[in-house]
Amino acid sequence: VPTKILSHLLSARGICEKPFEIKIDNIRFAGFPKTVSHPTGRSPQTFHVVFILTAKVTADLVTSFQELSRKIAIAIDEEQTRCDYLAEQMTIILNEHEKRITSRR
């Protein structure tokens, strides 16, 4: 699956706050997209915690990973509220990305 199609499928637009599951070929993606409660500056408006599983896993296991994703998403959102965690991490990621682009020139 091309990266652009996969990124569109995994983007959280319109599906936040609900368990997520999609199967592509022999891979199953299970997760929980979350709307950021208190977005700031460079923090995203939404994010998605996703686990990649084999397609043949049981429905109970998929549900367990979706629940784990939900709990991780809630914790990340609480850290965003407490200390601007997502904005800080986004800045780090974007700075590293920029360094790599610059070093390739």
TrEMBL record:
UniProt GO BP:
cellular response to amino acid starvation; negative regulation of TORC1 signaling; positive regulation of autophagy; TORC1 signaling
Any one Gene Ontology cellular component term annotated for this protein: GATOR1 complex
Tell me what this protein is called: Uncharacterized protein
Tell me the organism.
Wuchereria bancrofti
Q: Which domain of life is it from?
A: Eukaryota
